[in-house]
Amino acid sequence: MTITAIVGTQFGDEGKGHVVDFLAQQADLVVRFQGGDNAGHTIVNGHGKFALHMIPSGIFYPETTCLIGTGTVVNPDGLISELDMLHAAGVKTDKLFLSDRAQMVMPYHGLLDEIEEEARGGAAIGTTMRGIGPAYADKAARTGLRLGDLNHPDWLQRRLQTALRRVNRMLAYWGATELELEPLLDKCTQWAAQLCERIIDPLPLMRNAVETNSNVLLEGQLGVMRDLDWGTYPYVTSSNPTAAFAAVGAGLPPQAIERVVGVAKAYATAVGAGPFPAELHDKTGERLREIGKEYGATTGRPRRTGWFDAVAVQHAAWLNGLTGLSMTKLDVLDSFAEIKVCTAYRLPDGSVIDYVPDTAVLEGITPIMETHPGWQSPTTGARAWDDLPDAAKRYLERLQELVGVSVELVSVGPGRDEIFTV
């Protein structure tokens, strides 16, 4: 048995779905443990190319059970659309289940998200306006609705009435039209008809997986630099994409997680506002974007690009207790004559730090860069460590040294056969 958490070590979009899809070949259960449909995991396999926003990346293995866990916030309309997409491609989803304790993203959450983001003006966070922040806010305020409520219409109506009073006060404050109860109840009835058979209490499933020595993958969304507590606050997501929260979001004791694989691109990207220390604002950054096809899987927005930031990934390694690294998109660097790595930050007073400070300080740092020769030869055909060019091996070995964690997996393309174990 192995219970493995797969987490992002940068700003998200590191290729976690690609890694989970690869590792799920030996998995009995794959659990999405946090986040909503505000970020996508791109999968390329024999069925085609897919951007999964809520459904775990193990869904393409018909014998693997998949669970959307308690720590997530679920937009039922989006989930149903995602299921329809998979069914149209011939993918079986009969072993997909939903935690009855997962929060629902209601139609008013997206409306509030849009209103509040626009009101921030120049201080906008860069939210996708999918309602994720307001849904987590309602969870913390104890006015949220959960998927299990769909199985209890009377309870659901009372909960929705309570929630709507608060929502309508907020809408009135912003001068927006208030919402009525009945259309929302009708929407919930539609969701119940399509989803109720999948809604379960997740704890018996999780306990059985542990007690039968099953192989379990815990799939996170986004990365540590977008963590609510340890990221570039307030330019963060509304949940904790760390291994520590994986236990909470999935329904496991923390000591059950034996392995934590951190996923990192061989360079770095970010979507949304906030400090991005190793960002490139030149033609090299544009070149990374175009070669890497760095556009958001959810929004299509161009991603900000930069060199690998070893300080940020070391930050992720400590917070997650990483046992290994998975390096993705190494092939994107194949044509570069030189490649840089951020190894430390210089503060305005000239002092140097090797850790990620609070956002107000991070905004003023200057990255200290280390230059490496490129390999300028294709890596896309590599299927083992020895197949890589020597300069590529030295680059990865240096990243291991800086981060303090060994590379376990290397990806040289988006396909399932383009990732290998070191």
Short description:
With 422 residues, this protein is an alpha/beta fold.
What labels would you give this structure?
Adenylosuccinate Synthetase, Chain A, domain 1; 10-stranded mixed sheet; 12 helices; 33% helix; 4-stranded mixed sheet; 422 residues; alpha/beta; Adenylosuccinate Synthetase, subunit A, domain 2; Adenylosuccinate Synthetase, Chain A, domain 3
Tally of distinct domains:
3
CATH topological fold name of the largest domain: Adenylosuccinate Synthetase, Chain A, domain 3
Count of extended strands: 20
Q: If helices are DSSP runs of H or I spanning 4 or more residues, what is the number of helices?
A: 12
Can you tell me the CATH superfamily of the largest domain? Answer: Adenylosuccinate Synthetase, subunit A, domain 3
| Order of adjacent strands in the largest pleated sheet | 9-7-5-2-10-1-11-15-19-20
Low-confidence stretches: none
Strand-residue fraction? 15-25%
The largest β sheet comes out as: 10 strands, mixed
Distance between the termini: 21 Å
Radius of gyration from the alpha-carbon trace, in angstroms = 21 Å
CATH class of the largest domain: Alpha Beta
Structural class: alpha/beta
- Mean pLDDT over all positions: 95
Topology of this structure?
Layout: E1 3-8, H1 16-23, E2 29-32, E3 41-45, E4 48-52, E5 65-68, E6 73-74, H2 76-88, E7 96-99, E8 103-104, H3 107-120, H4 132-141, H5 153-173, H6 181-195, E9 199-200, H7 202-211, E10 216-223, H8 243-250, E11 259-265, E12 268-270, H9 283-292, E13 304-306, E14 308-309, H10 310-320, E15 324-328, E16 338-346, E17 352-353, H11 359-362, E18 366-373, H12 390-403, E19 407-411, E20 419-421
Parallel strand pairs: 1-10, 1-11, 2-5, 2-10, 5-7, 6-8, 7-9, 11-15, 14-16, 15-19
Antiparallel strand pairs: 3-4, 12-13, 16-17, 16-18, 19-20
Helix pairs in contact: 3-4, 5-6
